[in-house]
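Amino Acid Chain and Its Fold in Token Form
===========================================
Purpose: to set a sequence beside its fold so the mapping can be learned.
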Amino acid sequence: MNTVDLLKLWKENATEDKDLVDELNGLTDEGEINDCFYRDLEFGTAGLRGVIGAGTNRMNIYVVRRATQGLCNYLKGTSLPQSVAIAYDSRIKSDLFAMEAARVIAANGLTAYIYPRLEPTPALSWAVRYFGCGAGICVTASHNPAKYNGYKVYGADGCQITLDAANAVLNEINSLDIFEDVKICTEKEGKDAGKIVTIGEECIEAFLDAVQERSLSGGEKLDLKLVYTPLNGAGLECVKKILTRIGITDVTVVPEQENPNGNFPTCPYPNPEIREAMECGLALCREIKPDLLLGTDPDCDRMGVAVPQGDDYRLITGNEMGVLLLDYICRKRLENGTMPKNPVAVTTIVSTDMTDAVAKAYGVELRRVLTGFKFIGEQIAILEADNEIDRYIFGFEESYGYLSGGHVRDKDAVNASMLACEMTAWYKKQGMTLAEAVDALYEKFGFYRNDIASFAFEGAAGMQKMASIMDNLRANPPKILDGKAVTKVVDYNLGVNGLPKSNVLEYQTECAKILVRPSGTEPKVKIYLSAREDTMQKAKDANDRILKEMTENYMK
């Protein structure tokens, strides 16, 4: 069926959401019609993520319903528990999409446990295991711009679903007509039948109990002045509660970004990795002079911080925070006598090599996995299956995701916020800021500079361009980077060190490394650059030169 016929079909059938009706009736541009309908929104291990709107290539109630019907069909063909936990964040239509999913689940005779208000993504991972569900759904587009929403699917272990499970669900989805083959009941019918169950307060309090168990402060009074921004997302409730539990009460919330708002009016790209998103918080910091600025993204699984440096505030990168937290956790657990025998930390192939040096200094086994926190979660599950979960002490990825316990199987900004505050207060007692602490680690372990460059490619032509870039890199790999010979080439699509195959390429010289990969959640190709020199400026200059070479030779 061509895009014109699909538009006609949708005009006839997609009548329940007025926003979609208005959009469909206003679609006249051939290019816009094609972009809405040229494909089904891709379902993979990250679930669905796309622009909110009408069409098969958009996030809307019909795409959500079809995906949920596919998930139900998959679950009914397994021995997994016939129930699904659901959470959602502050994004536009998140609450609607969550309830639409619950209605489909209930109509299929499964039980949907749904949070009564927006909650963090890690609280969804927790709820899956708390209720013993066969799967979970979190309606979120994480840190993407406001026009996006998404639908992440979790397995019974609380991790995002595996590739095999995603393919099985996708096969079910592809067998369904989006309008004819989806079962759905009303919200009232689902609740009356006991198939739509509102998650009670005891679940979220149990989640916070589990987070608090990872505290390293030993209940001591923490002297800390904090500014916090939830970036108009789902973090406010849980972050404030966990900070109160550990005795941090001097907390000022950035007023413009306090309340949930899916339009993100003060930060078009609500990602604590990006300075623009933190600017409101930084302005408030310059006024009230806190010890720490803390920010969590809209679904509260990523955390960023800024700390005093001179007369201003310095943003700590995801790699720097990962190294700081690993060092702090090792220090405190050794001090507290709680370091397990043969401790394990986990990070990703694109995270800083400085992690290896810190882990080695403390005798910690460091495992590297593919990009995506679910692979860190899988390592926790492996340890749990061997009755060795206590060996896991920390996991992180450079994109601001951290987790110090096995209570959930996804990155947890509630857990990370608690640890970052405890660590800042600990260093404050030593007369140091976090900026001084990370610089001290550089002096000790070496100056590792990590940078990321993203190249966006929208629409159908963009997808083809991304594939072409990766094909060209494989056929014509760089031989020289920054005047130095490339000594090692790694194609993760061939399978490396027992890792699943992945469309990632790595090139190494004697003192630098780059990895190139298409994003799994955005229409972008990312280049991860890493250099180690005897000063940070030299390392930065090396990365800048390598990026220029890669941009000119491969990204145009």
